[in-house]
Amino acid sequence: MLNKACVVTIKVKDMEEAIAFYTRILGFEISRRYSETIVSLKQEPIALVLETSQTGKDHGNSNNIVLGLESDDLDRDIEMLREKEVRLVTDEPKPCPPGRYIEIEDPSGNKLEVLEFSQ
Known about the structure:
alpha+beta, 2 helices, 8 strands, 38% strand, elongated
C-alpha cells in the first residue's frame, strides 16, 4: 500500500533565498545539504525538502509542492500502479539522495513522488 506520506518537497526558484526564508523567518533548521539544489530541513515525522526548480521560474500549472509517498518495494508498486492504469510521469525509477523514486499523477493532474529509501 502506498498510504504513508514520507516527504513534502517545496520547489524553489533560489535556494539561498529559500533557506533564508525557511530558517531565519520561519525558524526551521537545516538537517542536511544533499547538493546545491536539494536541502532537507529538520521536521518530524514527515521530511521537508527544498529543491531548486528545474527551470528556475514559476511552475505555471505544475506543482510547487510535491507529496512523497513511501514504498518498501518500488518495483512491485510500479507494476501495481501500471495494472491500475495510473499515469506514470516517469517510466523508470530515478535516483535521488535517499534512494530512488518515480513520479505519478492523480486524476486531477497533481504530481506525486513514490520513494523507496535505500537506507
